[in-house]
Amino acid sequence: MNQTITLTNGKEIPVLGYGTWRNTDPDECKNGVKWALEYGYRHIDTAQMYGNEEMVGEGIRLSGVKREEIFLTSKLNNDNHGYENAKRTIDESLARLGTEYMDLFLIHWPFVQGHEEDWVENNIETWRAFEEAYDAGKLKAIGLSNFKVEHLESLLPHCRIKPMVNQLRLHPGVLQEETVAMSREAGMAIEAWSPLSPIPQMQEDEAVVEMTEKYHRTIAQILLRYCVQKEWIPLTKSVHEDRIKENAAIFDFKLDEEDMDYLDQWQWQGDVFL
Ligand SMILES: NC(=O)c1ccc[n+]([C@@H]2O[C@H](COP(=O)([O-])OP(=O)(O)OC[C@H]3O[C@@H](n4cnc5c(N)ncnc54)[C@H](OP(=O)(O)O)[C@@H]3O)[C@@H](O)[C@H]2O)c1
């Protein structure tokens, strides 16, 4: 359950993360975080954009799990890009979360409104604020989210401290192979967001339904296990206690090569919002 991956700076990141996107109801959000920690998750993912950093902080405190046992991530909102904004808003996130440090802070999106012309320079300047906060110990690791090849190519040569993570939409049918390969070459660990997107389509897929019978697992568990075997760090969200528990039970079985291959070639029919 507490399997970890070592980031380039030696910090351990738990391979299963509890996500909080769309958790804006205070009770749902606090309880979700609390249940996740009770069921053994030690990695929580939020973002300034989700508007729930305070609730996440409260959920953590409610759980009684010690802060130092938890890997806590947040992300820079799109309207906080730029050196001065980023510098200021890192402190705001810390205050909302009620913590002295974040384990990981990410640039949420590389290309944001208002910076259509200067997005390259804008990301470089933003990153400088991340590096300073890392040096100051406010951020224990720093990284990127949704950065594709062209975004990586334009930022990486300017980084004094290299990003340690790239958080991407990843699941069967959305493999982003070029971006993943480039991120890994640059030393980044890969996180997978919305890993359960294929569930509705997979419910109609005979081969996947057969897998659920073969492994005695749900489609959600198969999808999360797939991520772990791809060496992606899945972030998964539910507001339901039973699902939060179910989604954590992925470390005591292994998908065989044939099933991994099937999922690798599986075609996603949904929208791709990257
Ligand atoms: N970097 C980015 O741009 C970005 C973008 C999107 C998300 N993220 C992060 O990644 C996290 C995960 O993505 P996601 O929120 O889209 O979650 P997900 O884990 O892919 O889940 C999607 C939906 O599946 C349902 N679900 C959860 N467990 C289930 C189960 N066992 N069986 C059936 N349905 C289940 C959930 O609904 P219920 O809550 O009703 O159970 C949830 O709304 C986010 O919460 C966020 O932290 C990052």
Describe this structure in words.
42% of the residues lie in helices and 15% in strands. The protein is α/β, with parallel strands linked by helices and 274 residues long. The protein has one domain: TIM Barrel (Alpha-Beta Barrel), CATH 3.20.20.100. The strands form two sheets. Strands 3-4-5-6-7-8-9-10 form an eight-stranded parallel β-barrel, surrounded by five helices. Strands 1-2 form a two-stranded antiparallel ribbon. β8, α6 and β9 form a beta-alpha-beta unit. It is globular. The mean pLDDT is 97. The site of NADP nicotinamide-adenine-dinucleotide phosphate (NAP) has 25 residues, from β10 and α10.
CATH superfamily: NADP-dependent oxidoreductase domain
Largest sheet: 8 strands, parallel, barrel
Number of strands: 10
CATH architecture: Alpha-Beta Barrel
Structural class: alpha/beta
What best-fitting shape do the alpha-carbon axes yield? globular
The value of Rg in angstroms is 18 Å
**End-to-end C-alpha gap:** 29 Å
Looking across the biggest beta sheet, what order are the strands in? 3-4-5-6-7-8-9-10
Report helical residue fraction.
40-55%
Task: Note poorly predicted spans.
Answer: none
Report the order of strands and helices: EEEHEHEHEHEHEHEHHHEHH
What's the domain count? 1
Q: Which whole number gives the mean pLDDT?
A: 97
Query: Beta-strand percentage?
Result: 5-15%
Number of separate helices: 11
Bound small molecules, deduplicated: NADP nicotinamide-adenine-dinucleotide phosphate
- CATH topology, by name, is TIM Barrel
CATH level 1 class label: Alpha Beta
